[in-house]
Amino acid sequence: MAAALDSAGQPADKAPAMGEKGSERSASIVGEINHSQDQLQRHLGNRQIQLIAIGGTIGTALFVSIGSGLATGGPGNLLLAYATHALMVCLINNSLAEMVCYMPVSGSFIRMAGKWVDEALGFLAGWNFFLYEAILIPFEITALNLVLTYWTDKIPVAAICIAVIVLYAIINILAVQYYGEAEFWLAFGKLILLLIVFFFTFITAVGGNPQNDAYGFRYWYSPGAFAENVHTGTLGRFEGYLGSLFSASFTVVGPEYIAMVAGEAERPRVYIKNGFKTVYWRFFVFFVLGALAVGVVIPYNDPKLNNGSGTADGSPYVIAMQNMGISVLPHIVNALLLTSIFSAGNAYCYCAMRSLHGLACEGQAPRIFKKTLKNGIPIYAFAVTMAFPFLSFLQAGSGTGSAVSTLQSVTQGATMINYICISLTFIFFYRACKAQGIDRSTLPYKGWFQPYGAYITFVYMIILEGISGYVVFVPGHWSVATFFPPYTMAFVAILLFFGWKIIKRTHYISPHEADLIWEKPQIDEYEASFTEPPTRFRDDIRAMFSKKKSSENYMGEDIS
What is the pLDDT, as a whole number, of residue 426? Predict the structure, then answer.
């Protein structure tokens, strides 16, 4: 049974606030590093968290893999599909933000699933997310190799793999603030790249290209806005939309990366909250406008979009630049694309390590993975995670394009399973708050349109995962090789959930029994221990360059 709550929804036995009995202990925490029960350290500041939020949203797929969605569905379907899926992930963000801002613990939604729904769901969520992140590390190293082939294919694949693995190891073995600093600067590279492709789209569309051709939305009319896929006619165009939607399901991500840093964030109920709040406009700018842009610059039937070469030429923006006879810009785009790819792999290393550590904290992975160094790095989780990048060496003996495609297909299912777990966890969290008399308006972040948003995403993600490999069931399209990639993680998820449930004999947690206290008293005490208001993002940037702390402070309403 959860501990009693007072009328304001606060635990009756919560830690005293500053100025009350026990405030001396609270005050001492301000200068300490270790603020959690799991030995991780809250070193990530506001500016780092905000750029991690941006960097976690902008991935390699937005610049490369989005081309396959365009080729499958056409520009109209691509725009509709990306807008649809972006809206759904915004609803995921809405659910996740409320839970994480209330309980910003290490392991985040992984541990919440076990605490508030069923231990078996936590086991499933944790191992699914760990495998998802860990498998994506070699995918990004493979992608980095592909980009380098734009200039030369004479660099040994093994040499590139080793260099990247060493860099990932160095960044992730240091204290978490160094990871945050690396992601802060790498995210700037992603933003610059995004601005370049947006300006390239607009300027060339109105005639600013070597041919002085103001092509505008020409490709929406010829070859057309809606491509046919598998079948012809109306059914084929709808299947084109589905193909673009599957592309969006791999590309449109982000909220989970903000959630995973909550356990190591300074003032998480302010800075993490701000990161979640900015997801909505970022999704519109990055994904909806991104889908619009790529559908403007290149026709969906350009043969290079699906040439299967496995080189950087597969980026739709690079193809468009080459088609227009632009010679320098493709080199700049690909150079910046390297920062995007490297940053993505670095983030996957971080999240995989913290997932394994979170599982160990709940007794769902060997206890050795809980052990951390003095700087708060889970050392044994680090060692296991860094074994996965070596899978990138497989590309040395096979077609690189095939390696990328296979890894992407396998992890696509894991993304949807992850969002299913988050949606279900929020539904149980919502019921628990209601049953235990917690007024959600008193929480640090109250999601809108709840619990309906969580129900919508729960059903949507189940359907999307179920139909993701539908093509193999169309007569004449059956293939074992194409059946398993979209459904592998679904089978793994079923085995994980029921395996743990049967072996451990777990049960669903009733709303009255859900532990909504958990680490809340300690987090409340940590937040109350600060004597100065939080800083604004722009003040952090100004202070970083001026080498002095800004005199202005920020009370948490806005980061602009």
Answer: 97
Q: What's the CA angle centered on 210, arms 208 and 211, to 5 degrees?
A: 90
Cα distance between residue 490 and residue 478, in whole Å = 19
Q: Which residues contact 545 (CB under 8 A, 6 or more apart)?
A: none
Residue with tokens 């909504």: 516
- Residue 11, beta-bridge partner list: 5
* Cα 353 to Cα 360: distance, rounded to the nearest angstrom: 11
CA distance 165 to 345: 10
Looking at residue 14, its pLDDT comes to 41
User: d(Cα 43, Cα 25) in Å, to the nearest integer?
Assistant: 20
Q: What are phi and psi of 11, to 5 degrees?
A: -65, 135
How far, CA to CA in Å, does 191 sit from each of 66, 322, 340, 349, 387? 17, 22, 9, 21, 30
Task: Locate all alpha helices (DSSP H) within 436-536, ordered by sequence.
Answer: 452-467, 480-504, 520-528
As a whole number, the mean pLDDT across the chain is: 84
Structure tokens at 393: 């060496």
Q: Match 């993304």 to its residue by tokens.
A: 415
553 pLDDT above the threshold of 50: no
Beta bridge partners of 44: 265
User: In sequence order, what are the beta bridge partners of 265?
Assistant: 44
The pTM of the full predicted model, rounded to 2 decimals, is 0.86
**Cβ-based neighbours of 484, under 8 Å, separated by 6 or more:** none
Q: Minimal CA–CA distance to 466: which of 227, 283, 234, 245?
A: 245
- Residues 86-111 have a mean pLDDT of 94
pLDDT greater than 90 at residue 544: no
Nearest to 324 by CA among 195, 197, 204: 204
153-181 confidence digits (pLDDT tens): 788 888 989 999 999 999 999 878 888 88
Per-residue burial over 373-412, b if 16 or more Cβ lie within 10 Å, else e, is eeebbbebbbebbbebbebbbbbeeeebbebbbbbbbbbb
> Residue 118 phi/psi, 5° resolution?
-165, 140
Sign of the torsion formed by the C-alpha atoms of 174, 179, 182 and 185:
negative
- The SS3 call for residue 97 is helix
Is residue 409 within 8 Å of residue 317, measured between CB atoms? no
How far is 555 from 187, CA to CA, in rounded Å?
A: 25
C-alpha dihedral (402, 405, 408, 410), degrees to nearest 10: -70
Closest CA to 187 of 51, 304, 280: 51
Judge contact between 304 and 157, C-beta under 8 A: no
pLDDT tens across 440-491, in order? Answer: 999 999 999 999 999 999 999 999 999 988 998 988 888 887 888 888 899 9
